[in-house]
Amino acid sequence: MAGRNAVRSVVRLRSTAGTGFSYLTMKNRRNDPDRLVLRKYDPHIRQHVDFREDR
Questions:
Q1: Is pTM beyond 0.90 here?
Q2: Residues 48, 41: contact at Cβ < 8 Å?
Q3: pLDDT average, residue stretch 39-47
Q4: Cβ neighbours of residue 41 closer than 8 Å, sequence gap 6 or more
């Protein structure tokens, strides 16, 4: 996915609720150099929680 274009890379977003659920997404490292935090749905606890970039 991100093999040839190193500016956009694949990152894993892991749930802060501790369920171990994660999403995969892409981000532009030039525009967002720090860790990404998005509020998304965690189906294990059936709530929206913060998902942080896992490195």
A1: no
A2: yes
A3: 97
A4: 47, 48
